[in-house]
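Q: I'm writing up a methods section and want to include an example of the input and output format. Could you take the sequence below and give the corresponding predicted structure tokens, formatted cleanly so I can copy it straight into the document?
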Amino acid sequence: MSRIGKKPVAIPSGVEVTIGKSQVDVKGPKGSLSTPLHEKIEVKVEGSDIVVTRVDDSRLARAQHGLRRTLLFNMVEGVTKGFQKQLEVIGVGYKVNVQGDTVVLNVGFSHPVEFRLPAGIEAKAEGTKLTIFGSDKQLVGEVAARIRRVRKPEPYKGKGIKYADEVIRRKAGKSAKK
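A: Here is the clean output for your methods example:
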């Protein structure tokens, strides 16, 4: 049995969980999220916990057990606390600005790159640091990855957009001819 799948998901106060035929909806102070149900997995609300069980011990049911529990846990955590990713823009003259729902990146191209944020995602820029906020963990990570893809950090000088906790492996440049 899945160690993660066996753990119940605690429902904090202020969070409402609705289990339908084909999906689970979670509403909280930071928004509402939903995820589809799998036919091999049963979800029940028992007291102040969400319990995830599987219908049988098939390979597919075992694979989905821990996954669906983790998705539900991330949804509950997202509507209560939210998720964030931090990016750093490193390079001479590189800047980042947030204008409404658009992130404007000046990262060494001849033009500024404008990145529109999807619904449910917010951004805040402080100097060369950019923080992405949201209640959907997958969407926050996807937006951060797309912004990083605009100018990946290069290994020689370390210039580009990187995650705050990322370590860039540096390479030695050309060596002088003797």
